[in-house]
């Protein structure tokens, strides 16, 4: 892949475009996999989750860290997803993660009691 001025934002946009080209199948489960990896960030898109994981790695240059982290995470994710029942296992772990959160309810947000 060649991109002029390859910033994290441009690389993320390229990957998102490729995902759109595959009707969302390239990154299916990636966001959920990242949430479980980070143990946080259910309110973020995959790009924000990658940046948070890059910051956790405490690398010096944030842009370079996010880019390097993105490729590392994508490689790990795609390897795990291609295994037997890979997508199912990813969503199963995400479901278990969700159920472990204090704010989670099976009723859904529209049926929760309003905050005090």
List keywords for this structure.
5 helices, mainly alpha
Largest sheet, in brief, is:
none
Strand content: under 5%
Structure classification: mainly alpha
Tally of strands: 0
Helical content band: 55-70%
Helix count from the secondary structure assignment: 5
SSE succession: HHHHH
User: Which value, in Å, is the CA radius of gyration?
Assistant: 16 Å
**What is the mean predicted local confidence, pLDDT?**
86
Give the low-confidence spans.
Answer: none
Name the overall outline. globular
Straight-line distance between termini: 52 Å
What this model shows, in words?
This protein has 116 residues and is mainly α. The chain contains 5 helices and no strands. Helix 2 packs parallel to helix 3 and helix 3 (46-56) packs across helix 4. 16% of the residues are buried. The mean pLDDT is 86.
Topology summary:
Elements: H1 8-21, H2 30-38, H3 46-56, H4 62-81, H5 86-99
Helix pairs in contact: 2-3, 2-5, 3-4
Summarize the structure.
The chain is mainly alpha-helical and 116 residues long. The protein is built from 5 helices and no strands.
